[in-house]
Amino acid sequence: MSEQTGHEPGGTPFAAPGGFRAAPAAVVPESRPPAGAPSPYAPPTAGEASPFAPPASYRASQTYAPPPSYGAPVGYGAPPPYGTADASGAPYGYGAYVAPPTDGLAIASLVTSAAGLLVLGGLPGPVGLGLGIGALRRIRRRGTKGRGMAIAGVVVGAVGTLVCIGWVWLAIWASTNPGVASGLAFEDELPDYTLRSDLVVGDCLREYPGSWDLGTADPVDCREAHALEIVAVLPLSGPVDSSDDTTDAEYDRGFAECTARIERAAPGLLDEWVVWTDVSFPHPDDWSAGATTAYCAVATDYPELRGSVLDGSVTGPE
Question: How would you label 69-85 residue by residue, b for 16+ Cβ within 10 Å and e otherwise?
Answer without folding.
Answer: eeeeeeeeeeeeeeeee
